[in-house]
């Protein structure tokens, strides 16, 4: 997720010159303490939860965001219909990536109803 700067632009105390390449860190944006209180905690019912930038922002905002949300909703509907609890049994490990904050492994036990 990178842009090419087309005109000299001041962002805070940084001057970004025309032609510079700029990388966006949406994951970091979701943890912006100046916007989200206690930003490192997952609080799904925080009042401004919908202003997250997980799907980007502006003209490049994700075109599949509604599909992505629907897939996740169906996943949880189907899981919760079968299991009353998903127990994480080992510390999850992350992939090494500057692009996706992904998981390499997260062993769980699914407890049926
Ligand atoms: C949870 C799932 C998803 C996440 C977190 C996600 C995230 C993102 C983000 C952050 C961007 C912005 C990229 C940028 O600023 O350069 C983006 C763009 C885009 N996404 Fe997704 N996405 C998801 C699912 C999908 C799906 C399911 C589709 C299509 C079926 C899709 C299609 C696109 C397209 C076409 C763009 C480019 C839009 C543009 O540059 O005009 N995404 N996505």
Topology:
Blueprint: E1 2-4, E2 9-11, E3 14-16, E4 21-23, H1 26-29, H2 65-82, E5 83-88, E6 93-94, E7 103-105, E8 108-112
Antiparallel strand pairs: 1-4, 2-3, 5-8, 6-7
The structure holds protoporphyrin IX containing FE.
Task: Quickly list its features.
binds protoporphyrin IX containing FE; alpha+beta; 113 residues
Describe this structure in words.
The chain is an alpha+beta fold. The chain has a domain of 61 residues. It is 19% helix and 25% strand. The chain has two helices and eight strands. A two-stranded antiparallel sheet has the order 1-4. A hairpin with a 2-residue loop joins strand 2 and strand 3. The longest helix is centred in the middle third of the chain and has 18 residues. It is elongated, with a radius of gyration of 18 Å. Bound molecules: protoporphyrin IX containing FE. The site of protoporphyrin IX containing FE has 11 residues, from helix 2.
Give a nutshell description of this structure.
19% of the residues lie in helices and 25% in strands. With 113 residues, the protein is of the alpha+beta class. The protein is elongated.
């Amino acid at each position: 997720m990178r842009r090419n700067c087309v005109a000299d632009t001041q962002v805070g105390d940084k001057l970004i010159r025309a032609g510079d390449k700029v990388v966006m860190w949406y994951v970091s944006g979701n943890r912006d303490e100046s916007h989200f209180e206690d930003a490192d905690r997952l609080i799904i019912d925080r009042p401004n939860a919908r202003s997250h930038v997980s799907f980007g922002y502006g003209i490049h905002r994700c075109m599949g965001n509604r599909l992505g949300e629907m897939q996740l909703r169906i996943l949880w509907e189907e899981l919760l219909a079968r299991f009353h609890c998903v127990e994480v049994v080992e510390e999850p490990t992350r992939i090494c990536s500057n692009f996706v904050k992904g998981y390499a492994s997260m062993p769980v036990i699914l407890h049926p109803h």
